[in-house]
Amino acid sequence: MPSAALAPSLEDEVPLETAAFFRRALRVLVDAQVPFLVGGAFAHACFTGIRRSTKDLDLFIRREDYERVALLMQTEGWRAELTYPHWLAKVYAGDDFIDLIFNSGNGIAPVDERWFRNNAQAEVLGVPVLIANLEDGLLSKAFIMERERYDGADIAHLLQANAEHLDWPGLLERFGTHWRVLLAHLTLFGYIYPGEQHRIPRWVMETLLGRLTAELRQPPTDDFHVCAGTLLSRAQYLHDVERLGYVDGRLTPASTMTPEDVAVWTEAIPAQQAQTGGNGCSPNLEDSHDPARP
Question: Which label site among 70, 178, 209, 219 has the fewest CB atoms less than 10 Å from its CB?
């Protein structure tokens, strides 16, 4: 099993009481043999060495394991809540909380068996755990483009630290029909690190640019009047779907979201803005204290 090159415990970034809660929760899940992966700031630190303060812990689980996890947490005296049924639950111990993530906020990246293959192992707060794979973390972050939160820098840092170690065929497969989003981030990487453009495999760029060229050579297709911007930001493209008559990209086969999911996720926008004074983090798939994850 691979081991993360950097696996900081992050003891210095988390208050002692919060760390004790996180540590106990991790041990409970490990002892119960519940499959889970650590993501968020912890995983980002493991893969990039960038340490930053965090007030929550992101754990990726399969949706079918949520009820079991909730029962284990409740047995410890903590409160479990299925906050957004299409992608996110939370576990509370007083003001501290853990995010249980089983999809992306935009419904395109459900946590399935593929997430649990060849994961790196690390110690988080002294507990041996598995870390979410680079490729899945990168996919999750690629769609976080809210006005108040954009994870492009995280992606650039993940690439800068790990370009030679990525499963590039697997990454292209994960993005699938969303390959333009990947191409956009890879293009930006070459802009951010002009002396390191060569670290992105040439065949990857040629494949993606080849797809773009092929599309440009095709005659215009039927206009289905879809706005996929809602897959990147739950708030900034509401004008398109509510005023201009575009089909919400989250209500196409690209996403697992239902109209009810979209309504709940949209209704949460003003509540989050009020909670953060109108300009703070909205929850989004990596530091999930921010529910605006797409």
Answer: 219
pLDDT at residue 6 in the model = 46
Q: Within 13 Å of residue 289, how many CA atoms lie on the same side as its CB? A: 13
DSSP symbol at 237: T
| Alpha-carbon gap, residue 104 to 249, rounded angstroms | 14
Cβ pair 89, 59 in contact under 8 A: no
Q: 3-state class of 91 per DSSP?
A: strand
- CB neighbours of 285 closer than 8 A, spacing ≥ 6? 39, 87, 101, 104, 105, 109, 140, 141, 143, 144, 293, 294
- For 189, the 3-state DSSP assignment is helix
Structure tokens at 253: 């086969």
How does pLDDT run across 126-176, given as a tens digit for each residue?
899 999 999 999 999 999 999 989 999 999 999 999 999 999 999 999 999
Residue spans of the domains in the chain: they are 1-132, 133-218, 226-275
Q: Which two tokens stand for residue 98?
A: 């853990």
User: In angstroms, what CA-CA distances link 242 with 107, 125, 245, 256?
Assistant: 20, 45, 6, 20
Q: Residue 274 is which amino acid? A: A
CATH of span 1-132? 3.30.460.40
User: What single DSSP character describes residue 129?
Assistant: E
